[in-house]
Amino acid sequence: MKRSFLPARPVLAGGVLTAILALAGCVPSGFKTTVQPRMPGANALAGLATSGTAGQPAGAWPAPDWVRQLGDAQLDQLVAEAYENSPNLQAAKARIAIAQAQLQQYDSMTGLVGTAGGSVTKARVPRSDGVANVRAGGVNVPVDLFSDPGISSSSLYAGFNYQIDLWGRNAAATRGLLSNRDAARVDAEQARLTLAVALVTLYCQLDQAYAQRDLLQEKRRASDQIDAVLRERAARGIDNAYDANDAAIKRGRLIKQLAQVDEQIQLAQVQIGVMTGKGPERGLALKRPHPGDLVDAPLPARLPVDLLGRRPDIVAARLRVQAAFSAVDGAKADFYPNLNLSAIGGLFALTPAGLLKGRAFGGSIGPAVTLPIFDRGRLKAKLAGDVANADLSIALYNKTVDEALGQVARQLTQLRTVDALLAEQQHSVDAAQKIVDIADERHRRGFGMEKDVNNARLTLVDERTQLIDLMAERRALRVGLIDALGGGFDVTKLAAPAIAHDELAFPAHDRLTDSHFD
Q1: CA triplet 240, 432, 435: central angle to 5 degrees?
Q2: Distance between CA atoms of residues 344 and 224, nearest Å
Q3: Is the CB of residue 4 less than 8 Å from the CB of residue 362?
Q4: Residue 33 falls inside a structural domain
Q5: Which residues contact 412 (CB under 8 A, 6 or more apart)?
Q6: Three-class SS of residue 150?
Q7: Res. 196 pLDDT band, cuts 50 70 90
Q8: Where residue 134 sits, what CATH number does that domain have?
Q9: Spatial contact of 370 and 338, defined as CB atoms under 8 Å apart
Q10: Are 197 and 483 in contact (CB under 8 A)?
Q11: Same domain? 182 vs 320
Q12: Coiled coil: which residue ranges (predicted)?
């Protein structure tokens, strides 16, 4: 049997080099990004410090466990349950797994890729002039040599293919997949922050509703006393029925307000239970909340600039810009020749028994060069699309930065306003309390009526209600500011496996405007 080892034809290095040099300048020009990443200035938030922070040293960023600062164990447990059961977080984890699998899949398809296999094929070949010919290994073999036109071609082989990444195509694709994988991780951190902020805000609203109900019940007791006194005076003919009926109307309004607050409490409980993933019954079983106040702290130094690495939504947007840049790099590399080195070896025979013969061994090895000569139109369209996608990614990044700065500015502005209102409202509460004390003293000495005392108490309750509402609003704004500052996220401390590539800076923007585009 003819030896089946067929060495590959030699490749002329000079010819390949000439083709490569001829194509080296074939990347089309005119494909450049038109949008630039935005960097906030150092004074972007100047003049927006909250009251109590002026003149203080620069503060720290929010701690990752900022929820615990509220000092409510029940709230801590609710947040932990929400982290465990939230469908949004489960979906975020699934997206991380998908991105990681895509990265591993691509890695397994590039570089050195091995293969092995075997086959046995039974066939009957047609005769021509009494002789059946079969082509094996590039050679026509007369089957009559084996006295049987029925053959069973068999093979056992192993081989490899190695992609030589001369132009960085595979490296660019790997960078892009890494960026998308890391963006999915950061998205999960953003989902955790959004969930915690929403749950804490709702929990504080529940606490506020309980406080409002306490004041309404106190107000109702005073209203009941006024109503009873006025009805008695009207029955005795001391006063007409106008005041008594007016008091009855106000008492009815209080009863309606109490019913509305009770509804708010129950709805908040139901929503909290839903957010924990354990159903409404979990929320309805809650005890009365007792969250504390978040401690005021000076704003961090270099707030506008450092915010870029402290907000997960900004970091994720930046990673997607990096992925878009990597796609452009890969599209540029597609215009250059593709060089693969492949080899295969094994046993090849016309019958299974022939595999056991030493002459059955054969194989080949050699390079393969693919020249994108006739694919230029498709490659140009792909490059144009990737550059446009880079523009889109940068625009979305800029939008995220603008919205982040706007959120911080809004929280600081509203906090400053609420701080001023709180100071004034505290004066109003103190004044209302003095009126109650004076009315009590006058009534005790017989100079005033009990109705005046109760009316003064109603006024005090109204002022305290406004104070509680302002305090609740301030606490909500503090939670919102923590959210605006990233909620303790720090890209440099992301849980393992950490972001391994250059995650804190954009790739050099001249990647999109270098000489290959000129």
Answers
A1: 65
A2: 97
A3: yes
A4: no
A5: 45, 48, 49, 50, 299, 481
A6: strand
A7: very high
A8: 2.20.200.10
A9: yes
A10: yes
A11: yes
A12: none
Helices 450-484 and 376-445, axial angle in degrees (round to 10): 160
- How many other CB atoms sit within 10 Å of the CB of residue 336? 19
Nearest Cα neighbor of 510 from 290, 328, 317 is 328
Model confidence pLDDT, tens digit, residues 117-130? 888 877 665 655 55
pLDDT the model gives residue 123: 67
- How many whole angstroms separate alpha carbon 81 and alpha carbon 96? 21
Residue 32 domain-assigned (yes or no)? no
- pLDDT for 516: 32
Distance between alpha carbon 210 and the CA centroid of its chain, in Å?
34
Question: Poorest-confidence range of 137-151, 232-246, 252-266, 349-363?
Answer: 137-151
pLDDT digits (tens, 9 = 90+) for 396-408: 999 999 999 999 9
Q: What is the pLDDT of residues 295-309, one digit of tens each?
A: 777 778 778 888 888
**Domain enclosing residue 150, as ranges:** 1-22+113-164+338-371
What is the rounded average pLDDT of the residues 424-446?
A: 93
Closest CA to 226 of 211, 246, 209: 246
Q: Which of 32, 65, 179 has its CA nearest to residue 482?
A: 65
Output the pLDDT for position 428: 96
Going by C-alpha positions, the residue among 351, 342, 380 that lies closest to residue 154 is 351
Q: Which long-range contacts (CB under 8 A, 24 or more apart) does 129-134 make?
A: 134/350
- Amino acid, res. 245: N
- How far apart CA 294 and CA 475 sit, in angstroms, is 7
The total number of structural domains that make up the chain: 2
The separation between the first and the last C-alpha atoms of the chain, rounded to the nearest angstrom, is 59
Q: How far apart are CA 344 and CA 157, in angstroms?
A: 7
Q: Tell whether 52 and 11 lie within a shared domain.
A: no
Q: Tell me how far apart the alpha carbons of residues 269 and 210 are, in angstroms, rounded to a whole number.
A: 12
**pLDDT digits 0-9 by tens, 84-103:** 999 999 999 999 999 999 99
Average pLDDT, the chain: 83
* Tokens, residue 514: 């270098």
Distance between CA atoms of residues 401 and 41, nearest Å? 12
Dihedral, 451, 453, 455, 461 alpha carbons, nearest 10: -150
Per DSSP, 506 falls in state P
User: For position 324, what pLDDT does the model report?
Assistant: 96
Closest by CA position to 369, among listed 8, 9, 19? 19
